[in-house]
Amino acid sequence: MKIFISHKLQDSATANLIAKELKEIKVDCYLDVLDNSITENGKELTNHIRANLNKCTDIIVVMSNITKFSQWVPFEVGMAAQKDMPTATFLKEDVSLPDYLQYWPRLKKSTDIREYVSARNDVEREYHAIYEFASQQQKTEHFYDVLKQRLK
C-alpha cells in the first residue's frame, strides 16, 4: 500500500501530520512537499503528479475551507477515481464537502488514519483469500462499507 496525500499548499502541516502517522505504522506515502524534485509547472507538473499518483494504491484528500480553491485537488481526485483507487477525505475542520467528495469515507483524527489502514488491509486479505477474481471496483466498494462502519 502506498498512499497519495492530496492537499492545498496551505494545508501542508496537516498533510505532513498524516504522512508522519502513516510512517509510524509503516505505510509508504507520497506527499509533494517532501518531494525535492518538483521544479516543473504546466505540462511537466501535470505529468509529475500523474506519474506519482500512478505509483500509489490509495489517496487521502486533506479538506479545509480553502480546498475548494485548489486546481490540483480535483485533478488528483479525478485521476484516482478513474482507477477505482480507494479514496478518503481527511477533514481538517468542520467543512462542507463539495459534491465530488461526499461519497467517500471521512477521516477526522489521526486514529482514523490507522482505522483506514487496518480496514484496507483486512479487506485486501479477505478478497485475496476468498474472491481472487473480484474486480478492483468491487474491492473498493467493500472497503468503503467496512471503513464507514468502523468510523461510526
From TrEMBL:
InterPro entries per UniProt: TIR_dom, Toll_tir_struct_dom_sf
Organism: Eubacterium ramulus
Domain (TIR): residue spans on this chain: 3-83
Entry protein name: MTH538 TIR-like domain (DUF1863)
One Pfam match: TIR_2
BP term (GO), one: signal transduction
